[in-house]
Amino acid sequence: MKECMAVVLAAGEGTRMKSKMPKVLHEAAGRSMLEWVVNAVRGVDIKKCTVVCGRGMDEIKARLGGAAAYVEQEERRGSGHAVMCAARELENFDGYTLIIAGDMPLLRAETVRALVDAAQKGNYACTMLTAQLENPHGYGRILRNELGDVTAIVEEKDATQEQREITEVNASCYCVGTPFLLECLKEIKPANAQGEYYLTDIVGLLNAKGEKVGAYIAEDARECMGVNDRAQLAQISEILRERILARHMRNGITLIDPKNTYIDADCEIGQDTVIYPNVTLEGNTRIGEDVILYPGSRIRDSVVGNGTQVQNSVVLEAEIGEHSTVGPNAYVRPGSHIGSHCRIGDFVEIKNSTIGDGTKVSHLTYIGDSDFGKGINVGCGVVVVNYDGKNKFRTSVGDDAFIGCNTNLISPVSVGEGVYIAAGSTITEDIPNNAFAIARSRQTIKTDWKDKRK
What would the mean pLDDT of 179-206 be, rounded to a whole number? Predict the structure, then answer.
């Protein structure tokens, strides 16, 4: 089997997207369109992937990093010209070159592999990806000879009535022998009203040289869909979500209402987890086994351990251990590590803090920039005062401490193990192990005060 290289065309202006962002960086189901395409291409084990960029080249590089090489198409002069910009990356390469549009996120690695296999097994100079459409209006039609080889691509405006009845259309994805490709690129002419170099011209050029051109028909025509506006982006996002959800359900996940569940492509979920409607899992989130995610929860780039329950809460860039409960209406912010068998209750906010195993933070509490040990009871309304207006400081609380309701811990402060703090206290000094602390004014009762006030 010959080696493959890939050229991904990502220089289109995408004017119909009406966006400052490069079109191919718009996201669908947790990945940019370009990332979907590059991942599909890398499923073929290619030697090198080159992305042809237009405006926003720096943004594209920042997103893909070292996953590809980059060239710039300074002038947009057609698909053929875009490949010409990448020609230097293909010099002295004797294998096949895949050419794929960067706005086809539905394209699967299995389909790309089948296209490459068809080219190599059929010994074709070029093999195109095509689709069978019930309504092929607006697409270039594929003309084949009696052997099934492709002889031409006819644009609809140039097609005869008989040719317009053909339902096989060009999907703008090619696998071409690299020496043939480089030769044809030198011969393509901008002989059209737009003055552009069309990549489709290589089909006619190869036929004129007596070379065979084949076509592989995609099993699912939707894979060939491109994105030109936000409505099409929404349509494709829905299809990708359907694929993702179907995969998880086949792997033993219960989705109560799949149509109202949103899971990004790179999320991992363990068996026997149950996910209720209106749950959103984003980024590289990892959910364990036997987890229950109740309605209204959003979890991004976080880890949730086995048997944990999250109810109507937000968890961002955090870790939660096993058999813990979070919510309702809790907010676990970046940098937080919640242990196992913990309780993070309603209207609790945890920020950049560690909460040890078995610690209960039941309600109406803020813990920021802190390290809480194991088995601690945190009463209602406790606040870690971590910011003095200029700087943030950390507070620590030892194992088995009891912090009464409406306590303020003024950072930086250290609370020892087994400490009891009376409700309503404002703690400004360190407390040693097993001590009792009370820091509030003594209650005063003035009898008959109301009558005297008159």
Answer: 91
Is the full-model pTM beyond 0.90? yes
Beta-carbon contacts of residue 228 (< 8 Å; ≥ 6 apart): 14, 16, 17, 103
Q: Is 386 annotated as a binding residue?
A: yes
Q: What is the DSSP string of 220-239?
A: SGGGG----SHHHHHHHHHH
CB 52 within 8 A of CB 34: no
Mean pLDDT of 192-206: 89
Is the four-CA dihedral 301, 305, 307, 313 of positive or negative sign?
negative
Assign domain 4-224 to its CATH superfamily.
Spore Coat Polysaccharide Biosynthesis Protein SpsA; Chain A (3.90.550.10)
> Helix or strand or coil: residue 167?
coil
Domain boundaries, the chain: 4-224, 244-437
Q: Which of 300, 382, 376 is closest to 349 using CA atoms?
A: 382
| pLDDT confidence of residue 164 | 92
Question: Which two structure tokens, joined as six digits, stand for 405?
Answer: 């309701």
Q: Do the annotations mark residue 139 as ligand-binding?
A: no
Look at residue 453 and tell me whether its pLDDT is greater than 80.
no
3-state SS of 331-360? EECCCCEECCCCEEEECCEEECCEECCCCE
**pLDDT at residue number 294:** 98
For residue 101, what are the CA distances in angstroms to 177, 230, 357, 404, 450?
18, 17, 50, 61, 81
* Domain 4-224 shares a fold with domain 244-437: no
Rounded CA gap, 274 and 265, in Å?
18
Contacts of 18 (CB under 8 A, 6+ apart): 229, 230
70 phi/psi in degrees, rounded to 5: -135, 140
283 is in an annotated binding site: no
Please give the Cα distance from 35 to 42 (Å, whole number).
10
Element spanning 329, H or E:
none
In the predicted model, is pLDDT for residue 1 greater than 70?
A: no
Q: Pseudo-torsion of CA 339, 343, 349, 354, nearest 10°? A: -20
Per-residue DSSP letters for 67-109?
GSEEEE-SS---HHHHHHHTHHHHTT--SEEEEEETT-TT--H
196 vs 80: CA distance, rounded Å: 8
Distance in angstroms (rounded) separating the CA atoms of residues 176 and 253: 41
DSSP state of 410: E
Arch. (CATH architecture) of 244-437: 3 Solenoid (2.160)
Catalytic annotation, residues: 363
252 labelled ligand-binding: no
Give percent above pLDDT 70 in the chain.
Answer: 100
